[in-house]
Amino acid sequence: MDKMTKIEIITRPEKMSDLKEAMNEIGITGMTVSHVLGCGMQKGKTEMYRGVPYEISLLPKVKFEIIVCEVPVDLVVTKAKAVLKTGNIGDGKIFIYPVENVIKIRTGEEGVKAL
Amino acid sequence: MDKMTKIEIITRPEKMSDLKEAMNEIGITGMTVSHVLGCGMQKGKTEMYRGVPYEISLLPKVKFEIIVCEVPVDLVVTKAKAVLKTGNIGDGKIFIYPVENVIKIRTGEEGVKAL
Amino acid sequence: MDKMTKIEIITRPEKMSDLKEAMNEIGITGMTVSHVLGCGMQKGKTEMYRGVPYEISLLPKVKFEIIVCEVPVDLVVTKAKAVLKTGNIGDGKIFIYPVENVIKIRTGEEGVKAL
Ligand SMILES: Nc1ncnc2c1ncn2[C@@H]1O[C@H](COP(=O)(O)OP(=O)(O)OP(=O)(O)O)[C@@H](O)[C@H]1O
Ligand SMILES: Nc1ncnc2c1ncn2[C@@H]1O[C@H](COP(=O)(O)OP(=O)(O)OP(=O)(O)O)[C@@H](O)[C@H]1O
Ligand SMILES: Nc1ncnc2c1ncn2[C@@H]1O[C@H](COP(=O)(O)OP(=O)(O)OP(=O)(O)O)[C@@H](O)[C@H]1O
Ligand SMILES: [Mg+2]
Ligand SMILES: [Mg+2]
Ligand SMILES: [Mg+2]
């Protein structure tokens, strides 16, 4: 079976719409988005949220989960960086995980065919 | 150690209660549920939400996370399909991931004993 | 590349702040927190939420996701147990997963350098 991979991108909520469009452009066939809280341990540096510095290290973030097989992981990472990088702290982080299988419920298809 | 597996089921919010009952019936010992947004890339086809067609591809979905060891993955998948399949687009998707360990905090038990 | 691991801790919402501080103390460099619903299959035993027994097995829980490389998994687990264990049902569960890679968007660093 072809290798399947989960790419998790956690970034600023303001970037949600741009990131969705960017993923669409590179042929991603689905994604799951959720609202989370992110604790970045800045060790003294202060991240800004809507122009206000946050003392406590707990900020609203958006999490994208994207499972790919045919679309290369590197393409997703490169595209996400292009959209999300500002150079300021809090630009976000990408985590890559192994996936064992995918099933599309409507058709019963599995693996790459289910994506 | 026995192989442990995470099964992630993403489907329509209306199915939340039925899916919970179905998992209970097959002896699942715990589950975690969250509200997410799903972007299905329908490439022109329109998914309905509460009778309204959605132009933008971002719909409320419910995500179930179930970690199993003794209950077979196939049984969970078969049962989920039985409850969730309508034949319409948007029935949902199942993702399978490897799990390295589980710990029950109250007892300190690990692995299959923690499930 | 050094082994990277995801530690997922699901516990009572009241413990959110204590757990965050505890993780900070052991040098965790980031974490992601979300609100979820937990179905513990107590098979007859009743878990309490804000002093009220819950008939239906669906309770508000908080989920911490922590990706580590240099900080040992065992240290995170031991610290989490110390903060979360009350001896009552519902203390929480810890799930351990493999991670393939991590990328810090601001710097482009990968792997252990991105953590
Ligand atoms: N080790 C980690 N484990 C789990 N989640 C993390 C971890 N590191 C970062 N995150 C998540 O990613 C979000 C964005 O992280 P962020 O961009 O602040 O990373 P960073 O390493 O602090 O980089 P920067 O120095 O550019 O701010 C965090 O708010 C948190 O939700
Ligand atoms: N590749 C993917 N990566 C991440 N999440 C996905 C992916 N594909 C689907 N999902 C999630 O699963 C949800 C349900 O998907 P859906 O049932 O629409 O799958 P589909 O492949 O579009 O099948 P169908 O043609 O039957 O609609 C989506 O809303 C999204 O949250
Ligand atoms: N097998 C599982 N799969 C997915 N999530 C689980 C599983 N078991 C537990 N959880 C999640 O962890 C939360 C806390 O679990 P809980 O502490 O009640 O575990 P437990 O095994 O029932 O132990 P206890 O007997 O001490 O209550 C649950 O509410 C649920 O969100
Ligand atoms: Mg940061
Ligand atoms: Mg769809
Ligand atoms: Mg319980």
UniProtKB/TrEMBL annotation, chains A, B, C:
Gene Ontology, cellular component aspect: cytosol
PROSITE patterns from the UniProt entry: PII_GLNB_CTER (PS00638), PII_GLNB_DOM (PS51343)
GO MF term list: ATP binding; enzyme regulator activity
Record carries keyword Phosphoprotein: yes
UniProt keywords, alphabetically: Phosphoprotein
Residues bearing PTM O-UMP-tyrosine: 54
Source species of the chain: Anaerotalea alkaliphila
Pfam families xref list: P-II (PF00543)
Official protein name in the record: P-II family nitrogen regulator
InterPro entries: N-reg_PII, N-reg_PII-like_a/b, N-reg_PII/ATP_PRibTrfase_C, N-reg_PII_CS
Biological process according to GO: regulation of nitrogen utilization
UniProt record similarity statement: Belongs to the P(II) protein family.
